[in-house]
Design goal:
transmembrane; S1FA_DNA-bd; transcription regulation; DNA-binding protein S1FA; nucleus
């Protein structure tokens, strides 16, 4: 093998990054950052935010549930 030929190939490879690696970095790094940030925010919210309040159940739904259970509804 010729020494000049090897040096020329090494210089050409060192000049530019592999296009596949660039795509992987451009897509992969933001994706990993996004997922890690979501996880951190989720853990923070679980520790610091109060639990969500449940919506009040309507009287109509309460009446329907009591009828299903066979409990007499007051006022009828």
């Amino acid at each position: 093998m010729d020494g000049k030929d090897f040096a020329g190939k090494a210089a050409a490879e060192a000049k530019g990054l592999n296009p596949g690696l660039i795509v992987l970095l451009v897509i992969g790094v933001p994706l990993v950052v996004f997922l890690v940030a979501n996880y951190v925010m989720y853990v923070y919210a679980q520790k610091n935010l109060p639990p969500r309040k449940k919506k009040p159940v309507s009287k109509k739904k309460l009446k329907r549930e009591k009828l299903k259970q066979g409990v007499p509804v007051p006022g009828e």
